[in-house]
């Protein structure tokens, strides 16, 4: 995206901008993979369920991956009967299972107990799967690790191997990484799965290898292609992946304006008209989001802070060629995934307006008003 054009064109802030060109580029990478090895692509809409994104993704994917009834409804609204909808969640509700079964094409049960509870009520209409915990950890931070000790996510691979439940399912779902930039974890997981139950894999119809891999940032796709082709050849399986951040992560920008600037305990502070509440993972995981204006060699250092009353509403310390002034605009980049979907109106601040950039024009697709805030609490 042309950042300077955005700053000049979008006079109000905060604004969240999606670059359609970058989204299409990411989807094109995935579509090429599908051509090379036959892998089926599901966009994981939990990353960003914008209808604009779903509409752009639809021609490039085989369907959507969802985590709840509302996501399933949205996916069905966009797809109708023209694509697959795969549900994976740790918490299926008994009062929702009938509607879910009528909407989704595949249901991955998270536990043997949920499988036993619901399988008979959905097996006629949906393809049944199980989420597997392969007990292989690749994330240093346990908050991101689906295979952490006492994990709530998936059936322990040892318990699965000892049970006879595979005779009552059509597929397996595996998801163990986040923001991975190589395929080493996936290769190790499939190796373990083959070692445990290779003879049983041939009885299945499909395997879902999950998400978490940043395909556009991985140069060598051949290991992935070889892995998928081998699974298809050896076990006659449909192979799925469900990228989310890989589709939208690097396509989103959050633009904010400096409201105030002052010195606190010897450090310059710039107060922005946005907040970490518009990108909650900054606070949740204490990471500093990438800033377009940051210059590692810049002479001036400033702490960028949000406008809420939360003391920890701080994006981080950045360096600039010149000090920021009141009215200056800054742009956080690579915030397309898990930002707007988690954003909130804490302190009564409006959510960012949402624009779609097509390479030439900025089209406003959503604006948060007082009426929206009132309706939330009415």
List keywords for this structure.
Lyase, Ornithine Decarboxylase, Chain A, domain 1, 2 domains, pyridoxal phosphate, single chain, TIM Barrel, alpha/beta, eight-stranded parallel beta barrel, 378 residues, polyamine biosynthesis, decarboxylase, lyase
Determine the CATH superfamily of the largest domain: Alanine racemase
Say how many strands there are.
17
- Radius of gyration in whole Å, from Cα? 22 Å
Contiguous runs where pLDDT drops below 50 for at least 5 residues: none
Q: Which CATH architecture of the largest domain would you pick?
A: Alpha-Beta Barrel
Number of domains: 2
Largest sheet: 8 strands, mixed
CATH class of the largest domain: Alpha Beta
Tell me the β content.
15-25%
How do the SSEs run, as a string of H and E? HEHEHEHEHEHEEHEHEHEHEEHEEEEEH
Structural class, by secondary structure, is alpha/beta
Which fold does the CATH topology of the largest domain refer to?
A: TIM Barrel
Distance between the termini: 38 Å
Give the helix proportion (percent range). Answer: 25-40%
- Enumerate how many helices there are, as a single number: 12
Enzyme class: lyase
Subunit structure: Homodimer.
EC number: 4.1.1.96
Cofactor: pyridoxal 5'-phosphate
